[in-house]
Specification:
heterodimer; A: alpha+beta; Arc Repressor Mutant, subunit A; 3 domains; ten-stranded mixed sheet; B: mainly alpha; Histone, subunit A; 3 helices; 40% helix
């Protein structure tokens, strides 16, 4: 009999504000210990927290992006526990009424196809400081730089059924928080970290006892930790044991999870509303302003890239809504969906879904592609180049597309010369490499290189004929082979003509002229 | 709701308040009287009333997201019992 794995994730996304959630200290990573740690962050007596509007705004943006409810009134609570890197003796968090309730994230499961992972909630809270357990004369060192950094804790329902699905969800969430620019997503620096709640059960039975694996800061560790934990739980139960609800730590060096020091009082945080902070009120007008400023999201953009017209886009979005909308007219549906209305104003590109998906992997790539098209390039050609040559060059250079030395306008300028037959695709790659090496920002940069290197494609009938005549005259043996019926010999002659033109002859014309002369 | 003496000791421990046996009895009695009051409040019908999370009917003021604090580590650490390499030193925490 098989086991069913049940996983829910709690994700801490560090919000990309300049200052901390309750103080005016900087959030910058890597500062000298305790320098961006103000009186509020180190909890001097008598200080009071003042909420950062930028943190709330990012939470609203997240809520809107996942189709959640933004609570117009939410409450900050104290989560009480004693640890030296939490100098107040409590963490300011949200408990009974978080800022965001509900919402969902769509993922593609390798076994179940497209599924929607429901979100329970997302709440604002402050991060704690850092304890350094290296030996300071038998004492522990405390760095409070991170104390008070704003976090959005995003809690999913236990909707995932495999470590693959958990990773797909985490990646999708990671992509989203960067897309809407609320978190830099830097996992090494701890800006995005997951806790996994894992349990197993026989299919159809109630939920089993869960264990929580803390602070997984890479997708690989997330997968490995869940896989180990599932094997461990199965072994315990099949040996006749029972799972104890506990918090576990993943050790990547040993690839196993182990129980954290079991504290009898661990789960009793005695939450209560923080008397220093009255309820957080978010008015409808603010939510609407944030909604207006929302970027077009990846799923919508993907459909727009693949749609052939505005009407087609409406059809695609309506068809993928996850509910039966056949009774509703396309026009009414479009009017009911502000995000779709906004996207309908933008151009469609008629790409394959595979290309569209690849281009919306991140916002910068999607922007780069659209700027190239806006520069006059054909959408399919632009997609091929962005996903092909540009991606390969970025890979080699180890940089992101935002830092690409060839601008979209410059790429569009190059593609225009392929389209009008000035250069062949092969020569274009050579020019692209030259543009990449020297840096190219302008639409005319490709032309300058074509002229400077004399790479203009030879399309002059007479010129090509002369080259063909020379090759035929100088390669009597190959010509004879061709006449004897060896088709391969023809390709060899084409190659020689191309070489004689130093790659510049129009290959189509060379073929035709050679065929005619040999015929 | 009534409170046991064990619960009183546990709450004291969670709050890191040291109380001896006689103090525990006294605290127990005081807490019991508070719970009696709460029990009386529980009798009020609050159906449909939004729970109050703050004593004052005000909403939370907010500030714009801007860095306004400068580095005052030297001042703050002057009163700390032990510091080194810019860190506050505390009795060892065993994980």
């Amino acid at each position: 009999m098989t086991w069913e794995v049940v996983i829910g994730l709690e994700t801490h996304a560090q919000l990309s504000t300049a200052s901390k959630i309750f103080s005016g200290a900087a959030t910058a990573f890597g500062a000298a210990p305790n320098t961006p740690a103000s009186a509020v962050d180190i909890a001097l007596p008598g200080v009071l927290p003042v909420l950062n509007k930028g943190a709330v705004e990012r939470a609203i943006r997240f809520g809107l992006a996942v189709g959640a409810t933004i609570n117009t009134l939410s409450v900050f609570a104290r989560k009480n526990y004693f640890y030296p890197d939490l100098p107040k003796g409590y963490q300011i968090s949200q408990f009974e009424i978080p800022v965001v309730n509900g919402g969902e994230i769509a993922i593609v499961s390798p076994t179940r196809g497209e599924i929607r992972v429901r979100l329970t909630r997302a709440h604002l809270e402050e991060d704690a400081g850092k304890s350094l357990h290296e030996d300071y004369h038998g004492m522990t060192g405390i760095d409070l730089n991170r104390a008070g950094t704003p976090l959005l804790e995003i809690v999913s329902e236990p909707d995932m059924r495999s470590s693959d699905e958990a990773v797909a969800y985490a990646k999708s969430l990671h992509e989203l928080v960067r897309w809407i620019e609320i978190c830099d997503g830097n996992m090494q620096e701890g800006s995005f970290r997951c806790d996994a709640n894992v349990s197993i059960r026989r299919p159809g039975e109630p939920l089993g006892t869960r264990c929580e694996i803390k602070t997984l800061n890479s997708f690989r560790f997330l997968q490995q930790a869940i896989d180990f934990e599932v094997r461990r739980q199965i072994a315990v139960i099949e040996d006749g044991g029972t799972i104890v609800q506990e918090t576990r730590l993943y050790d990547p060096d040993r690839n196993q999870t182990r129980s954290m020091r079991s504290k009898e009082d661990a789960q009793d945080y005695r939450y209560f509303p923080d008397p220093d902070l009255p309820p957080l009120a978010i008015d409808r007008g603010w939510i609407e302003r944030v909604r207006r400023d929302m970027p077009e999201l990846a799923p919508m953009r993907r459909l727009r890239f693949s749609a052939t017209s505005r009407e087609h886009l409406v059809e695609l979005v309506k068809g993928g809504a996850g509910v039966d909308l056949s009774e509703m007219s396309d026009q009414v549906y479009e009017e009911s969906n502000p995000a779709l209305q906004a996207s309908g104003q933008r151009p469609t590109h008629g790409l394959t879904l595979a290309d569209a998906s690849a281009l919306v992997q991140d916002r910068a790539t999607a922007d780069y592609f659209e700027s190239t098209v806006a520069g006059g390039a054909d959408a399919k050609a632009a997609a091929n180049w962005v996903l092909g040559e540009v991606a390969a060059a970025l890979n080699r250079a180890g940089i992101g597309i935002a830092a690409a030395p060839v601008s979209p306008a410059a790429l569009a300028g190059l593609l225009a010369r392929i389209a009008d037959g000035t250069i062949s695709g092969k020569i274009a790659k050579e020019i692209f490499d030259a543009m990449w090496a020297s840096g190219a920002r302008g639409a005319r940069d490709a032309d300058a290189i074509i002229d400077a290197k004399g790479l203009r494609q030879i399309s002059d009938e007479g010129a090509i004929e002369r080259l063909v005549d020379e090759v035929i005259a100088g390669n009597a043996g190959i010509v004879a082979e061709f006449r004897a019926g060896r088709e391969k010999a023809f390709n060899s002659l084409v190659g020689k003509v191309m070489a004689a033109s130093r790659g510049k002859a129009n290959p189509g014309q060379v073929n035709a002229i050679l065929r005619r002369k040999l015929g | 709701m009534t409170l046991t003496l064990d619960q009183v000791r546990r709450i004291a421990h969670l709050a890191r308040i040291e109380i001896d046996a006689s103090e525990a009895d006294a605290v127990h009695a005081k807490l019991e009287s508070i719970f009696e009051m709460i029990n009386r409040l529980q009798a009020v019908d609050t159906q449909g009333v939004v729970p109050m999370s703050h004593a004052q009917d005000v909403s939370l003021p907010m500030r714009e997201d801007a860095v306004s604090e400068t580095d005052r580590r030297a001042d703050y650490q002057r009163v700390a019992p032990a510091v080194e390499d810019g860190l506050y030193l505390v009795p060892r925490v065993v994980e």
